[in-house]
Amino acid sequence: MAMWSVTVFNTTPEGCEALRQQGLEAFRASIVGSWEVTHEGPRWIQALVTQGKAQQVRSDWFPSRYLVPAGQVQPLPLWDWVRAHQEQGFLATLAENDKELAREREYGRMQVHQFHPERLQASASDAVWTVEIWDMH
């Protein structure tokens, strides 16, 4: 099964690097969410790129990196799916109805490592966020 590691940061790649230089605690404070996901995982960010709402700035999967305005990411149903997986775990959230099955097909099944909803909402909608996706084949 194909797996991806996804991390969403509430800052730019340069901001991430500056925070890394400040130390692990400062760097971790920029993470909105981090999870591993099945093969459907990158579809949501690829859809934003196709729609012109995000920009892929690195594409070799080590990692692939995207820039996206927070306002394009904050309202996505993705976060409800992340929250459900965080609360119920990877296997407990098998689709039980058509709505869940549609979400599973769109976002994949996840193992959530971190999710900080307060960071999701605290950022200005025009702030640029970084999404990193690692291929874990």
Summarize the structure in words:
The protein has one domain (3-135). With 137 residues, it is of the alpha+beta class. 27% of the residues are buried. The mean pLDDT is 83. It has a six-stranded antiparallel β-sheet with strand order 3-4-6-1-2-5. The protein has helices spanning 13-22, 24-28, 43-50, 70-73, 78-88, 98-107, 117-122; strands at 3-9, 31-38, 55-58, 64-69, 110-115, 128-135. A hairpin with a 5-residue loop joins strand 3 (55-58) and strand 4.
Residue windows where pLDDT falls under 50 for at least 5 positions: none
How many domains, in number, for the residues? Answer: 1
How would you describe the shape?
A: globular
What is the terminal-to-terminal distance? 8 Å
Report the portion of residues in β strands: 25-35%
The structural class is alpha+beta
Order of helices and strands: EHHEHEEHHHEHE
Helix content: 25-40%
Kindly report the average pLDDT value: 83
**Biggest sheet architecture:** 6 strands, antiparallel
Compute the number of strand runs.
6
| CA-based gyration radius | 14 Å
- DSSP helical segment count: 7
Strand line-up across the major sheet:
3-4-6-1-2-5
